[in-house]
Hints:
CATH topology: Alpha-Beta Plaits
Radius of gyration: 20 Å
Number of helices: 3
Shape: elongated
Strand order of the largest sheet: 2-3-1-4
Number of domains: 1
CATH class: Alpha Beta
Distance between the termini: 56 Å
Largest sheet: 4 strands, antiparallel
Helix content: 25-40%
Structural class: alpha+beta
Amino acid sequence: MNRRKLFALAAIFLFLVPPAMAEQRTVTLAVEKMHCALCPVTVRKAIEKVDGVSEVTVDFDTKTASVVYDDAIATVEKIAAASTNVGYPAHPVKQ
């Protein structure tokens, strides 16, 4: 196949096939067993280690964690498991 045909086919492919677009999502988790000021730090650090997580805010007063993540990389289940695995069971808040 000559170079022009190959280039033309590549160009057509790039224009006709839409890229898979990841989307940033936010989830709020209820986090159990937080009893002191250090607990939110532990939860935040654990969740930050999940691939695809870009932002974590843990609120001790409301016992919640707000997490911004890339849904093509991370899942709510993986994020909740990260908190649960360090001793703070977490689950999504129903909205």
